[in-house]
Amino acid sequence: MLNDTALDTLFYQARTHNGWQDRDVTDAQLAQLYDLLKWAPTSANGSPARFVFVKSKEAREKLAACMSPGNQAKTAQAPVTVIIGMDLAFYDKLPQLSPAVDARAWFVGNDELIRATAFRNSSLQGAYLIMAARAMGLDCGPMSGFDNAKVDEAFFAGTTVQSNFVCSIGYGDVAKVRPRAPRLAFDEACRIA
């Protein structure tokens, strides 16, 4: 079991951030972040997530223009906002990623399975990104308030990748953190069968 400090970092004291300190997140930190999250499990090791680390001022402004009004300013201000995309041709990498079986054959021609698997597993990989960032001492602000079609056109045009969600990463401004919202109790959300 992790100690209380680690659990606080990952869960109990971790918060969604809406404002950011003027501190850089380095390219080396982003590479380390990916190196951590890539080891977490996905179906057949398919790893369908594709990450665009939006860091330059021009790219941040381009992404902010795709965001809902309430998310525009914080996206433009964040040192990095990651677009977590899902590659709908992820199964073409399965011979490399899952060599023990012919997992690619499970997906070819099955658009419903491709989309469901890509969405589910890229969502998982986005959650792994959040946990890895927190473990590295970075704060996160995940968001789904944006125009997917605009993000896809701006950042994934001509590819098989579509946007899933975005997550700002940096050093949060604690003065802009909202009060902690409640969570459901075990007996409201769970049952043991």
From TrEMBL:
Assigned keywords, A-Z: Flavoprotein, FMN, NAD, NADP, Oxidoreductase
InterPro entries: Nitroreductase (IPR029479), Nitroreductase-like (IPR000415), Nitroreductase_HadB/RutE (IPR050461), RutE-like (IPR023936)
Family affiliation: Belongs to the nitroreductase family. HadB/RutE subfamily.
The name this protein goes by in its record: Putative NADH dehydrogenase/NAD(P)H nitroreductase GJ700_09830
Entry EC no(s): 1.-.-.-
Sequence ranges assigned to domain Nitroreductase in this UniProt record: 21-155
Major enzyme class: oxidoreductase
Cofactor(s) it depends on: FMN
Record-linked SUPFAM superfamilies: FMN-dependent nitroreductase-like
GO molecular function: oxidoreductase activity
Record has NADP as a keyword: yes
HAMAP family in alphabetical order: Oxidoreductase_RutE_HadB (MF_01204)
Gene3D superfamilies: NADH Oxidase
A UniProt-annotated Pfam family: Nitroreductase
